[in-house]
Amino acid sequence: MAIEHIKLDGKVIPLSEGEIIKCKPIERKLLLQRRKYKGRNIYDGLNLPKEAGDYAMTEIREGDWFYKHTYYHQDGRLIGEYYNINTPIEFYPNKIRYIDMEMDVVKWPDGRVEIIEEKLLNRQLELGYLSHELANGTKKIAKELKEKLLN
After folding, report:
1. Model confidence over 8-25: pLDDT tens digits?
2. Which of 74, 80, 130, 149 is the most exposed place for a label (fewest CB within 10 A)?
3. What's the rounded Cα separation, in Å, for the pair 44 and 52?
4. What is the domain extent for residue 88?
């Protein structure tokens, strides 16, 4: 399954494809396993190196304002979690798509949780790519998600 990650300026970034491991049509949920990564050799937000054999389990539900990547080493050890905040997720027959809101939440195996990239969101607001209402809604989602992960 392809993942179309669209930036606020309209740039389309195709993420690495995932194999559908679980499909729950009634709940509009998918669980994808992603073993091949595109882009940098560092996990976004976690600032940890990607290693051969690492994989991600991506939990995604149509209509949600965020989704979760859980990263693992080849032997099953947890690397960390990355929550992408975005516009409501859309499912298509051959892809998933959304617009990335720039702000994300990460959780390390030791339980630390951090909201990241708020400066990027604010910059996009200054450039006029989103409204104050949408920016504030994104910040609210990030704060609520962080609180939930800490409890």
Report:
1. 999 999 988 899 999 999
2. 74
3. 17
4. 2-150
